[in-house]
């Protein structure tokens, strides 16, 4: 993805290190925080792990959920206390984490986080996506989430309908108009919200979803202005942020090959272009961007693809802030720089440096000195760990840091990992594909094993990660008699933009070639892999790929289990399908080539029904295992 303002973004590699074009060295410093020995899990199966963490802007309080209960950590004393018993469906806090709004199955409550009191708040209907304003005076919320959703505000003036068009107002299109909901395509770009408070709490920026999404600035006195951009040319509203300065949005063409980063004048709704994003394949915005920096610059996530570089980077008004070796995954926020000016904080960035299997936290200087960009390693992340920033406090997983001092650890049970898998991580073929082999416990070299290639969720999802929590299910498959192989083919994030986007308009061809080449390359290092007995397994798009592997490359892949596979790309969300295959109207033949057709007795479809394939709606582990081993 090209960024239209990167004239200062040239890099060259010299003497084994990164340098700018004028030979300024890039500085890396050693890790500040110790790597945690035991990974922690935070998902629906282990709700005792702290999740949904919020840090107040003054750094005094950390709010989080644990076991579906709302908890608060006082940073100064390091003590925790429970604010509200469960079940808490969701919550949101004001800017300084003094007030929180809690939702329980549509009921809304206000929690005073200083006093520890909780009180019910009447609403116009079951409440969703409730958020206090930055000062904690008023609460905005959405009702009728699945119908003609409306946006309400409740506060000293009572409960008021701020925006809504109930009933079948959108009659000419046979649908309803919704206010304050993200919209059907938003999740594919990582946007899970449909409205935002202004920093001073006097306005709300809201999405109106009808035939297409539009944006509107709503005053609390019921005045409003429309946000103006060419919605016909740029229909996708990919990103929205309003936290200091005016609102910033990212809009994309339907082809996703071109986008604009726009700032919005909150008085008039007029927009100004801050950067253009372009890529011949597709634009991939970086979560956490765009955002205003304290000195007025706009931080933009982009890709550096010239002068021999292939990097996913961060720019601030044309200046490149990150080195090409750092694959940026997300910007979590900013922290004050020790001894630096208030207007030049450090960015807290999630990314990978050198090894795509390892996800780490980095501090990145936003002010460039004569020594070039400065990047400091902070911590290694486990699979479930999230990074949250507020004031001068950083929360990494369950660890709470202020500066270089760990001030608290959020109470959490020990890691609930039934297995301690130890996969052999490799880089194979001339493309240096990340790959891994997991043997059964107690495996003795010289024993030939049938191979199970796991495809997971398919394109866009990493499988080869250095985190034991991610290998629990694969450990079970290995102990059932397989050598489990995972290969991150082209199309997978974490390596480089060109690696990720090489699948454009040739998805099945590229991925299956990489899987086959990677498997044979692994056999050279792991001769106990029995390539005469190779099975493949995946879910969703990974299930589609598993079935395609047996149909197109039967000489390599002999049996497949496809759980809830995609059988027709028309069933895939439009932004995802067109990102890989292009517009169906222009690429009908390509779409047809990627549809599952032509049955095979060697494919077991689970949760799908397609003529010619063996279909078992509720197959369990034992049935799948028996099917895969029966050849």
TrEMBL record:
Residue span(s) of domain Peptidase S9 prolyl oligopeptidase catalytic: 477-570
Superkingdom as given in the UniProt entry: Bacteria
InterPro entries xref list: AB_hydrolase_fold, Peptidase_S9_cat, Serine_Prot_S9B/DPPIV
SUPFAM superfamilies xrefs: alpha/beta-Hydrolases (SSF53474), DPP6 N-terminal domain-like (SSF82171)
A Pfam family reported for this protein in Swiss-Prot or TrEMBL: Peptidase_S9
Family annotation (PANTHER family): DIPEPTIDYL PEPTIDASE 9 (PTHR11731:SF193), PROTEASE FAMILY S9B,C DIPEPTIDYL-PEPTIDASE IV-RELATED (PTHR11731)
Protein name as catalogued: Prolyl oligopeptidase family serine peptidase
UniProt source species: Actinoplanes flavus
């Amino acid at each position: 993805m090209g960024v239209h303002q990167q004239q200062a973004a040239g890099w060259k590699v010299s003497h084994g290190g990164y340098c700018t074009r004028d030979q300024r060295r890039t500085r890396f410093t050693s890790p500040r925080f110790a790597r945690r020995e035991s990974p922690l899990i935070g998902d629906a199966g282990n709700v005792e792990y702290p999740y949904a963490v919020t840090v107040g802007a003054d750094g005094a309080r950390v709010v989080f959920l644990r076991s579906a209960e709302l908890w608060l950590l006082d940073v100064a004393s390091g003590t925790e206390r429970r604010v509200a018993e469960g079940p808490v469906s969701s919550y949101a806090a004001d800017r300084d984490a003094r007030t929180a709004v809690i939702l329980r199955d549509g009921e809304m409550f206000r929690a005073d986080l200083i006093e520890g009191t909780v009180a019910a708040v009447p609403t116009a209907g079951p409440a969703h996506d409730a958020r206090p304003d930055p000062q904690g005076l008023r609460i905005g919320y959405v009702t009728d989430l699945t119908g003609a959703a409306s946006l309400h505000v409740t506060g000293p003036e009572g409960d008021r309908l701020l925006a809504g068009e109930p009933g079948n107002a959108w009659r000419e299109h046979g649908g309803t108009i919704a206010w304050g909901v993200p919209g059907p395509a938003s999740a594919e770009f990582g946007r899970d919200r449909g409205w935002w408070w202004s920093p001073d709490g006097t306005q709300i920026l809201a999405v109106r979803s009808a035939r297409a999404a539009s944006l509107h600035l709503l005053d609390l006195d019921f005045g409003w202005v429309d946000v103006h951009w060419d919605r016909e040319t740029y229909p996708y509203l990919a990103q929205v942020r309003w936290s200091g300065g005016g609102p910033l949005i990212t809009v994309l063409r339907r082809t996703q090959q071109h986008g604009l980063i726009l700032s919005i004048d909150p008085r008039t709704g007029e927009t100004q272009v801050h950067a253009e994003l372009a890529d011949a394949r597709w634009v991939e915005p970086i979560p956490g961007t765009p955002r205003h920096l304290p000195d007025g610059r706009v931080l933009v996530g982009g890709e550096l693809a010239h002068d021999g570089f292939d990097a996913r980077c961060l720019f601030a008004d044309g200046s490149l802030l990150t080195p090409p070796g750092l694959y940026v995954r997300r910007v979590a926020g900013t922290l004050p720089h020790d001894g630096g000016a208030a207007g030049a904080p450090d960015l807290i960035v999630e990314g990978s440096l050198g090894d795509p299997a390892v996800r780490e936290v980095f501090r990145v200087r936003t002010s460039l000195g004569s020594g070039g960009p400065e990047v400091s390693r902070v911590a290694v992340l486990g699979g479930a760990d999230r990074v949250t920033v507020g004031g001068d406090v950083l929360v990494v997983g369950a660890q709470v840091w202020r500066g270089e001092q760990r001030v608290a650890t959020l109470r959490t049970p020990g890691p609930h990992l039934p297995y301690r898998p130890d996969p052999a991580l490799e880089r194979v073929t001339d493309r240096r594909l990340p790959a891994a082999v997991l043997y059964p416990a107690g495996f003795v070299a010289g024993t030939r094993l049938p191979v199970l290639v796991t495809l997971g969720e398919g394109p866009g999802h990493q499988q080869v990660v250095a985190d034991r929590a991610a290998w629990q299910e694969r450990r079970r498959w290995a102990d059932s008699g397989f050598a489990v192989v995972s290969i991150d083919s082209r199309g997978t994030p974490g390596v480089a933009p060109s690696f990720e986007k090489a699948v454009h308009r040739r998805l099945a061809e590229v991925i299956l070639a990489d899987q086959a080449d990677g498997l044979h390359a692994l056999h050279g290092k792991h001769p106990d892999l029995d390539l005469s007995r190779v099975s493949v397994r995946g879910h969703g798009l990974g299930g589609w790929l598993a079935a395609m592997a047996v149909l197109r490359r039967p000489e390599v892949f002999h049996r497949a289990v496809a759980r809830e596979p995609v059988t027709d790309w028309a069933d895939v969300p439009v932004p995802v399908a067109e990102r890989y295959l292009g517009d169906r109207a222009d690429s009908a033949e390509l779409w047809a080539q990627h549809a599952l057709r032509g049955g095979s007795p060697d494919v077991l479809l689970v949760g799908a029904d397609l003529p010619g394939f063996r279909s078992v709606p509720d197959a369990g582990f034992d049935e799948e295992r028996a099917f895969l081993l029966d050849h």
